[in-house]
């Protein structure tokens, strides 16, 4: 038995379990609502962990620990911003969106919700929002495929091309078969695995370096500024890192979890569970990178791979400090993070193509069975495009994740928030907000990036202003729009 055998066995068992969950979900999938939103049947626990796992990709176990290992606690501002943004999203958006989507045509997707909420008979909102989803999420999916390939490549010594297909195949399989229920149930398993890995690993690293005091002393000896959260920071830099939290209000794969909850009454419990999970996971990821500084400064003979690529700090600590079987479980957590996010993105793209193009424009009378199979075909189509985009490991797809996050946050975030709290908002305001938000992000990224300000900030501000201004131009909301808004708000407040 080679050193890699336990890890291979662990990965195979884990992937097999995910596909079995997909098969079980397949038996519960009878119509398009089941495939896209699980029939709005998720309880608070599954809603909470599914929202968390769909949000946190391989970045949680590779990117964040690597950044902390390289630069110290000054990189932790992004985690603080994400926690604040996620909490506000649960508090102000989750419950209202669950109720409003049901009152507005029982909407299954974000474009569907916008169309019904603003009585957009021209369907221009549906088309534009679905296009935004497809463009940004195809890039997002490609980045997930690359991250999975990198994991298989570094863990098993595969060629990049082999690792590409190995990493993507399992995710495609259970998403294709089981749809939203499979994705949500597997997310719950994956979220549990991620929190286990991120709590256990920093504790074991700290024990290996002699306890709390020796660990902190070794980190300070390596570079005292590792403890300085303002090291090399500017006001614009800190604000830009924290502004990642603004992105939550416009992420379709996270908002879909709110829409799928079995009841608005499940949301408060889900919020508490999700935020506890998120704080522990982000804290664990920061601790892995931070304590890794002490471990590898004390053991320079094994620091080579981490020196070459700091994002390998979690992988190397797991392989060095744990029994190979336990290491296999811990490394499966990285696969879990990649798979959970990629599966959600594939499903959102599939639902945009099926519900917002195929059903809306091509086959309005399509049967539920036909729509489910079209949804499955769209999962395969988007997956193949993502794999093609990811085929060149040097195409910098991963660098576009922050671009896509900003694009969604600015194009959809202000529209979602104001559509839920301001009943005077109109179709013109919604369309202007989407266009201004998306265009601002693109122009800022390409022409004003040298200013150092994350493009989501101007995008969010200008989109909000556009909504407020253009909602006052032309006709106001119809009586039926106002009535639906008031009825949904009344139900939300009485919950």
Automatic annotation (TrEMBL):
Pfam (any one): SSF
Coiled-coil intervals, chain numbering: none
Keywords (A to Z) from UniProt: Amino-acid transport, Cell inner membrane, Cell membrane, Ion transport, Membrane, Sodium, Sodium transport, Symport, Transmembrane, Transmembrane helix, Transport
Record field: catalytic activity: L-proline(in) + Na(+)(in) = L-proline(out) + Na(+)(out)
Subcellular location: Cell inner membrane; Cell membrane
Membrane topology: Multi-pass membrane protein
Xref: InterPro entries: Na/Glc_symporter_sf, Na/Pro_symporter, Na/solute_symporter, Na/solute_symporter_CS, Sodium:Solute_Symporter
Family: Belongs to the sodium:solute symporter (SSF) (TC 2.A.21) family.
Function (record text): Catalyzes the sodium-dependent uptake of extracellular L-proline.
Stated name of the protein: Sodium/proline symporter
Species, as recorded: Ectopseudomonas mendocina (Pseudomonas mendocina)
Gene responsible for this protein: putP
